[in-house]
């Protein structure tokens, strides 16, 4: 199968960027959740996006939120989105057909979605001024595009250089995320809010894990050795 990724240092750099993205986001989430004021932040009960609420405590979407380090979480999301988009451009070569082009488009959509979540908070103020629409658009975009990207990269694993196991895992992660998405939406829209944080992470974490799997494979690839220069016969240079 023809590869759909670039070769050389640029591709490895892109893989590192894609790998750093979810690690930065997870670190920001851990630090921000640790600073959450009482009661302690619950990854099962509390919304993920509530970690990014800055300012005084507020009750938003049925939950009390008090996140002193909300700016840290928002920064983590914005950095993640930028690294994902830039990394995808460095790794995948759109000149090699429709497949890499689709993956790059999905990566850009997912990255833009993460950035919207980090820039436009899910706050009461944004509900009042209408900017909550951009937050919601970003969240749903990354949830859908990110999981579809996981399936697409897994389906093209042989062309990317993924092992069969990693390809299968990537497709399984994306499928699991897409299955969890309507469950999460139903839980939120009906107002039931049963373990909303758990269901939200069931959609988001498969994306992040799939990025780590993809990126670690790309970053760890051995670069082809540069062939030695071909020496011309002596009579050709005389």
Automatic annotation (TrEMBL):
Q: Name one Pfam family in it.
A: DUF998
Q: Output this protein's name.
A: DUF998 domain-containing protein
Give the stretches traversing the membrane: 16-36, 71-92, 101-120, 132-155, 167-186
Print the keywords alphabetically.
Membrane, Transmembrane, Transmembrane helix
Q: What is the lineage of its organism?
A: Bacteria, Bacillati, Actinomycetota, Actinomycetes, Kitasatosporales
């Amino acid at each position: 199968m023809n590869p759909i990724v670039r070769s050389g240092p640029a591709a490895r750099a892109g893989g590192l960027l894609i790998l750093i993205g979810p690690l930065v986001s997870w670190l920001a989430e851990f630090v921000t959740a640790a600073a959450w004021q009482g009661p302690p932040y619950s990854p099962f009960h509390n919304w993920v996006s509530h970690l990014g609420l800055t300012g005084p405590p507020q009750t938003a979407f049925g939950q009390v939120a008090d996140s002193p380090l909300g700016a840290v979480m928002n920064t983590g999301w914005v950095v993640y989105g930028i690294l994902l988009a830039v990394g995808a451009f460095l790794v995948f070569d759109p000149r090699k057909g429709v497949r890499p082009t689709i993956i790059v488009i999905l990566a850009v959509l997912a990255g833009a979605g993460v950035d919207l979540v980090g820039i436009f908070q899910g706050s009461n103020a944004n509900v009042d001024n209408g900017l909550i629409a951009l937050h919601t658009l970003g969240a749903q975009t990354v949830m859908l595009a990110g999981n579809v990207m996981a399936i697409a990269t897994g389906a093209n694993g042989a062309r990317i250089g993924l092992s069969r196991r990693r390809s299968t895992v990537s497709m399984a992660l994306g499928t699991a995320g897409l299955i969890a998405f309507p469950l999460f939406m139903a839980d939120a829209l009906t107002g039931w809010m049963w373990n909303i944080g758990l269901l939200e992470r069931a959609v988001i974490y498969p994306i992040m894990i799939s990025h780590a799997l993809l990126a670690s494979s790309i970053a760890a690839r051995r670069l082809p050795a540069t062939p030695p220069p071909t020496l011309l016969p002596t009579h050709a240079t005389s």
